[in-house]
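The methods section describes the discrete structure representation at length, but only in general terms. What matters is that the chain and its backbone geometry are given together, residue for residue. Nothing conveys this as quickly as seeing an actual entry. For illustration, here is how one protein appears when written out as sequence plus structure tokens:
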Amino acid sequence: METKRYQASSILLHWLMALALVANFTLGVSVHEMDLSPMKLKMLAWHKWAGMSLLALVTLRLINRLIFRPPPPEPAPLWQQRAASWMHAALYVLMFAIPFSGWLVTSAAGIPMIYLNLWELPQLLPKNLEWADGLKEIHEALNQALLTLVIVHVLAAIKHHFFDRDNTLVRMLPFLERRR
């Protein structure tokens, strides 16, 4: 039986999203540790631009997933199939929630969100610094949750490849050889 791979567009969007998430998470953590300076403000702007770009990218990815259904799962116990479904749903929820929570933080802080220094995005909330502080904590907690789920996701893919010796990872990595 031949292993069905994901569509090329699905693979491309998966890895583009993964790289962009890692880059923006790293940028966000770096900025968080900095003292207030012109460089910090510039890096915060990049972080926000990347977040809004990730929001557009995850929207495109979801549309792609609705058009190109994933291949059927590799044979696995029902609990693993259910866990994988819940994991993917949680990842999508977080990939939407995190940029929106960052946008809410910016709005509540009374800071205009100007995408790529070209377009001012609407303020989602009135200025309220108490809300901004609380929303910042939510934004950080959502990021920690995403980091945790991504680590579990990667570990599960490694487990499938090296321990179960199935084609779960092969379906998303075009350069890997199919297992028999």
Observations:
- The domain at 8-163 is CATH 1.20.950 (Fumarate Reductase Cytochrome B subunit).
